[in-house]
Model the fold of this input.
Amino acid sequence: MCPPATESKSQDNTKLKAAVGFLSLATVALLASTIALAVNGNKSTTTSSEAAAATGSDFSSSKASSNFFASDDANVCAGAKLAFDNQLCADLEVPGPQAGGNVTKGYVGNMTVDVVPNTKPYYQSSMCPVNVHWHLGSEHYSYGEFDENGDGPHGNIPRPDWAARDLAESGEKVQDGFRCHYYDASDPKFTTPYDWKHCKGMEVGETYEVHWPHSAAGACGTVNQYQTPFYDGVFCNLDMDTFSTLAAQDIANAVGVHGQVFTIVNDESYFYPDMMRGMIIDEEMGMGQDIAYYTGSTTGETRSNEMCSMYTPITWQVDRKCHMISASSFDKLCYDMKMQRDDMSDDLHAHGSRELVKDDLVANNQARKALRA
Done:
């Protein structure tokens, strides 16, 4: 005898609800298992990453036995530097424009020149980075960013009396420059020491100005691209006879420097893995966006407002803003430098900074350009 239709339908509904309930429980259990596996997998990955970071990989022994580094003769840029000695500025009838100067927005130097800086990204002019090095403190001056009001573990330097415009190896003592405004002695990221493995004489909390010399005559795209001293890289494929035929504008178009200023912090949220290739350009982070363009010279503490560099005019593209960068970013950079064919060990420490260049020695060709894309 068949049950009444209503009773049959009720039994079917009960079975359906039971099946749905079982499937729901199974689904929840499966989801829970998947989440657990994912969490455990992530924990395993994190642990592996931390272990890898802790042990690291050092290929120094591999470099020592590699055929790529067996002979110094393989470095075609070695000794390519064209020597132009510093000269007393007063002895020069018309000294070339000097660097580093004031890069505050609105500043214009007093030296009238007929050369203009190269405002293109350097790769668009067939230029490549041929070296990277840095100076203690900033050589350039950007009011409100790196100036006399900044600070660091060892204080700062004053602005020279003449600069009255409103717009304005480890253990070895070198002349320092200006500091950024980030340093806070009560914040551990500026004071916690970092265990440096590759850089020499560097310090957390300090300000450094990084320079990336670029040249169209470099050994671009080859194993000899990066050189110390940087002059070997700049002049690698340019002899004196050819150089003597170049006009000042030709040089400014073909040789340039990226300049970017950093305060070092012991904080991995500021890690950037590749500082070898030039200025860090990141719109979201505001890096490499507000650029000063002008023509100047080589820098360093052997030059001053009395002693002029003869390597001029070259283009300078300088980030007006200061940025925080992790100590590990610099140490990774020094490691990368050690892995180049040329011996870059003389650039693994901060170099001395040139004093701020007087207005009369700074070109008046500062380019006004929209923020870099």
Remarks:
- Residues 5-55 form the longest helix (51 residues).
- The two ends are 84 Å apart (CA to CA).
- The chain is about 25% helix and 15% strand.
